[in-house]
């Protein structure tokens, strides 16, 4: 499966034309010194070559779901070898018709469909210490026994440039990366403040009200995975349906 080879450090010479063009757009975003990408750990991970990449087909396709499951399972097995700032960056070959016509909400449906598919095909048990209900503050997405923060970027985002990319994409970060990053509270708080300042400059709308920190009593991780282009948010997590269906089996 072609996408899996990208768990090695990126090799431009091994990429197809579409993959190369997509990666170069991402690299430009990470390296831009005039418009600084808000997520400082992500830019550090890119600079240090800690990030790993996958290039998958049309995100609506069943084949894309199958490859996503295999890629994330393989990444989970080896992520602690890739560096302290590692994340799995996945680009989907998004048809032009989707780029031109799909709304943020339609891409949101694709995202939650993928999350439910991952969970329903997970070969490992949900971690016992993580709540199964997304409405509990300590809940977060888990797969293959690992806790993950999910980020989704789409071609439809315009106001929230920090969530825009020319292809539908996912950035998947292990919780252990974020925990290690926060080991020095003073440093972590300093970086969080810098990130928020960068977001204010990067986006043409105010910081989304759902952005928060894991562990806070008023925090809900699922609301941060896919941010709308305005201040709105879903009233109920779409992940509920999967959990309900699994319990009824």
Q: What descriptive keywords fit this protein?
A:
249 residues, disordered C terminus, five-stranded mixed β-sheet, alpha+beta, disordered N terminus, single chain
What would you note in describing this structure?
This protein starts with 16 loop residues before the first helix and ends with a helix. A 5-stranded mixed beta sheet has the order 1-2-5-4-3. 41% of the residues lie in helices and 11% in strands. With 249 residues, the chain is an alpha+beta fold. The longest helix is centred in the last third of the chain and has 18 residues, at 185-202. It is built from 9 helices and 5 strands; from the N terminus they run ααβαβααβββαααα. The chain has one domain (2-248). The protein has helices at 17-31, 40-47, 62-78, 96-101, 104-120, 175-181, 185-202, 222-225, 239-248, and strands at 52-56, 88-92, 141-143, 146-153, 169-174. 33% of the residues are buried. This is FPC/CPF motif-containing protein YcgG.
What fraction of the residues are assigned to beta strands by DSSP?
5-15%
Residue share in helix: 40-55%
Please tell me how large the radius of gyration is: 17 Å
**Average pLDDT level:** 92
Based on CA inertia axes, which overall geometry fits?
A: globular
Low-confidence stretches: 1-5, 241-249
H and E string: HHEHEHHEEEHHHH
Strand order of the largest sheet: 1-2-5-4-3
According to DSSP, the number of beta strands is 5
Major beta-sheet overview = 5 strands, mixed
How many helices? The count is 9
**How many separate domains?**
1
| End-to-end gap | 32 Å
What class, by secondary structure content? Answer: alpha+beta
